[in-house]
């Protein structure tokens, strides 16, 4: 989609080898990328420095081992950026994710934290050196035992069901052992594995640090009642980023709360893990979408709910938005628009409202920000509109 000469940065760049190191066409600005683009679909954008900074914030601030939840965005460039920033541990869920991370980062440690896996996935994972596996019931424990020939070198993580708290995307209801089942599972698993831990997920984009404190108090109660020692606690993901209409506490408040709660509950000696997805890559990615048609306050774009705007369509999420080439971060001459995506499906609509300049017109490009997590990763090829173009912006 870019010619060889246009895809590379000609003159001084702040980070001179990003375009080589991460394998992406690299530009100074999104306007430069749009100007050089001769494709027809939307463009995915990564900001390597933002992603790298987010990783460093986590690696230095989170009181435990940091696993990147690959599902948030498995783009090879993201994995390379995170690896270069020092991330070595990856939460994976499928054979594809195992092979992807292994091929790019051969020394990565992989954690199969999906509580319900196919037998083939378990076999493949074990053959690929995966020794951390999650389960949330005795049936899954039995499957893991069978498919690993009762391996004695496993670390098993019991996924707990935790009530929906203050997450914008609750994850309660599908996975996790309830209190009594968890006690049975801990007692059953303890003699069968080298190391035993518990894991939980408070829900994605968790807006209240207290959800982590409450859950760690719950873990204390559970472990005491089970009467078996555990080796680790995986605090899951859920760490939030700011979106329009959603201003969470700073990440440091989450790290401090978890640290304090671990000490208070007597867990300071355990191995602590976290599985951030959104917090590592949401702010470091955006989508450039072109206006194909304007009808009043409706804008028809070349990206939509089957592209990277799933959350905007299905959960009415807002994202930072601006017209490419506009320099004023808060332009005054704006009005509210609704977006339609490019597919023939009439549910391909993002109500917004999204504030953009009064004079926006067909042919203009819009940058929709904070889509580095669960944006590009959710895009489908429905109606043939999937974009295979990702660029790096070296700002
Ligand atoms: C098991 C597991 N770990 C980690 C994550 C990442 O969560 P987040 O992106 O909220 O940090 C998810 C998200 O669904 C998950 O299911």
Short description:
This protein has helices spanning 4-7, 18-21, 30-36, 48-61, 76-85, 95-104, 119-127, 138-147, 179-189, 210-226, 251-264, 278-281, 310-314; strands at residues 26-27, 43-46, 65-69, 89-92, 109-112, 132-135, 155-159, 167-169, 195-199, 204-206, 232-234, 271-274, 285-295, 298-301, 321-323, 334-340, 349-357, 365-368, 390-393. The chain is of the alpha/beta class. The chain has 2 domains: 17-47 and 284-393, Lyase, Ornithine Decarboxylase, Chain A, domain 1, CATH 2.40.37; 48-281, Alanine racemase (TIM Barrel), CATH 3.20.20.10.
Question: Could you name the key traits of this structure?
Answer:
13 helices, alpha/beta, about 400 residues, 2 domains, binds pyridoxal-5'-phosphate, eight-stranded parallel beta barrel, TIM Barrel, 19 strands, elongated, Lyase, Ornithine Decarboxylase, Chain A, domain 1, single chain, nine-stranded mixed sheet
Written description of the protein model:
- This protein is an alpha/beta fold and 395 residues long.
- It folds into 2 domains: 17-47 and 284-393, Lyase, Ornithine Decarboxylase, Chain A, domain 1, CATH 2.40.37.10; 48-281, TIM Barrel (Alpha-Beta Barrel).
- 30% of the residues lie in helices and 22% in strands.
- It is built from 13 helices and 19 strands.
- The strands form 3 sheets. Strands 1, 2, 13, 14, 15, 16, 17, 18 and 19 form a 9-stranded mixed sheet that branches.
- The longest helix has 17 residues, at 210-226.
- The two termini are 22 Å apart.
- Bound molecules: pyridoxal-5'-phosphate (PLP).
- Pyridoxal-5'-phosphate is lined by residues 69, 71-72, 91, 113, 171, 201, 204, 236-239, 275-279, 373.
């Amino acid at each position: 989609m870019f010619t060889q000469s246009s895809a590379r940065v000609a003159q001084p760049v702040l980070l001179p080898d990003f375009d080589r190191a991460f394998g992406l066409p690299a530009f100074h600005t999104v306007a430069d990328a749009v100007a050089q683009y001769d494709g027809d679909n939307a463009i995915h954008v990564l900001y390597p420095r933002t992603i790298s900074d987010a990783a460093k914030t986590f690696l230095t601030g989170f009181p435990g081992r940091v696993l990147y939840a690959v599902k948030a965005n498995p783009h090879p460039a993201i994995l390379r950026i995170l690896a270069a920033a020092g991330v070595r541990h990856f939460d994976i869920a499928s054979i594809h994710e195992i092979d992807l991370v292994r091929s790019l980062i051969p020394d990565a440690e992989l954690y199969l934290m999906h509580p319900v896996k196919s037998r083939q996935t378990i076999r493949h994972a074990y053959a690929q050196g995966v020794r951390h596996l999650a389960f949330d019931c005795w049936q899954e424990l039995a499957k893991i035992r069978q498919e690993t020939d009762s391996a004695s070198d496993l670390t098993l993580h019991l996924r707990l069901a935790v009530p929906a708290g203050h997450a914008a995307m609750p994850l309660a209801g599908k996975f996790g052992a309830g209190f009594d089942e968890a006690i049975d599972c801990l007692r059953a698993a303890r003699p069968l594995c080298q190391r035993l831990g518990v894991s939980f997920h408070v829900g994605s984009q968790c807006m209240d640090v207290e959800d982590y404190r409450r859950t760690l108090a719950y873990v204390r109660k559970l472990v005491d009642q089970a009467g078996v020692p555990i080796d680790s606690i995986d605090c899951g993901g859920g760490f939030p980023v700011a979106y329009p209409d959603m201003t969470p506490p700073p990440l440091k408040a989450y790290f401090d709360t978890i640290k304090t709660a671990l000490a208070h509950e007597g867990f300071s000696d355990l191995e602590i893990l976290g599985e951030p997805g959104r917090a590592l890559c949401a702010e470091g990615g955006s989508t450039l979408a072109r206006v194909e048609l304007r009808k009043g306050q409706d804008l028809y774009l070349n990206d939509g709910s089957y592209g990277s705007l799933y959350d905007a369509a299905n959960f009415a999420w807002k994202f930072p938005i601006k017209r490419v080439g506009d320099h004023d971060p808060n332009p005054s001459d704006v009005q509210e628009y609704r977006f339609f995506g490019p597919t023939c499906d009439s549910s391909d609509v993002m109500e917004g409202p999204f504030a953009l300049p009064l004079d926006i017109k067909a042919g203009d490009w819009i940058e929709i920000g904070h889509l580095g997590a669960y944006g590009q990763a959710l895009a489908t090829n429905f109606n043939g509109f999937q974009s295979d173009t990702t660029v790096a912006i070296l700002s």
